[in-house]
Amino acid sequence: MRCRPFQHIGMMDLPDITDSEKGSIVLPNCYHIGAAKCASTWLYHACLEHPDIYSPPENDNLNFFLLHYDRGLDWYRSQYFGAVSEGKAIVDFSNAYMLSDIALDRIARDTPNARLTCLIRNPVDRAYLHWAHSYYKSSRPPADPATDSGNPLDAAVERPSGRTFAIPLEVVRHPNGWVWGRAWLEPGLYAAAIRRVQARFPEDRLRVFVYEDLLRSPEEFLSSYFEYLEVDPSFVPACINREINPDTEETDPARMTDDLRTQLKAFFRSDIEDLQRILDRDLSEWL
């Protein structure tokens, strides 16, 4: 089973999007499931600008099907989609879904006709960014919702001071560093994640996009993404050339030591090789 990567597609490739068969129950008909630190916040802002797409304007990481499913679909709908009008592509951005069997099972059961998208990048760089944003930005002031997807610690009554995640990335290779390995390395095991999705959804219900394609041509990238959602692919958002949640000199993956980069390449190698087969795409630049 092959999962097609970023490319232009015809509008007739998929059946029409439905929101529970276009009834009165409005739920998402598309889920952006990850991966974290792969420009999902930028893509979310692009979707907010598109007139034919609705995504909750106050949060780009709902994670309902993992964290709040016990509250029920009525709560989910009223909390996030009460303002939606019919005929739109309705997108839930939640990076946790890509890693969660439980969330994927619930999505498949409750919205079986939905589309899923994911955006991936070199997993070594992704791992460094995920760690660096925790290490170097954990002591930053409360997030600006106009530019940042937020820090959950901002919700604390007494927000911790200082670096909350002052843990070196090297701990992920220690036998007892598995909890950090799950946080920083596992999200980059894309082939394993895609196979979880494929076990629950038809092949044409998942579209995988690659970050390097976004860098080469943001316009073509967004056109393909919008086309997959069956909305106007010619729309160009104002944020197309704007950095959102920008990196700093400290969070640049180029700062990683050669030794650690070599170790992480070895860790991800077999998954990247499997990913090449799934996508039918050369990813040797990641190896």
Average pLDDT works out at 85
- What is the CATH first-level class name? Alpha Beta
Main beta sheet strand tally, sense and closure: 5 strands, parallel
The strand count comes to 5
- Which secondary-structure class do the elements indicate? alpha/beta
Description of the structure:
The structure is a single chain. By secondary structure, this protein is α/β, with parallel strands linked by helices. It has one domain (30-286): Rossmann fold (3-Layer(aba) Sandwich). It is 36% helix and 7% strand. The chain has 10 helices and 5 strands; from the N terminus they run E-H-E-H-H-E-H-E-H-H-H-E-H-H-H. It has helices at 40-49, 64-67, 73-80, 101-110, 123-137, 178-184, 190-198, 211-216, 218-228, 258-279; strands at 30-32, 53-54, 89-93, 115-120, 206-210. The chain has a 5-stranded parallel beta sheet, sandwiched between helices. The model is unreliable at 5-23 (pLDDT under 50).
Question: How is this fold's topology laid out?
Answer:
Blueprint (H helix, E strand, L loop, with lengths): L29 E3 L7 H10 L3 E2 L9 H4 L5 H8 L8 E5 L7 H10 L4 E6 L2 H15 L40 H7 L5 H9 L7 E5 H6 L1 H11 L29 H22 L8
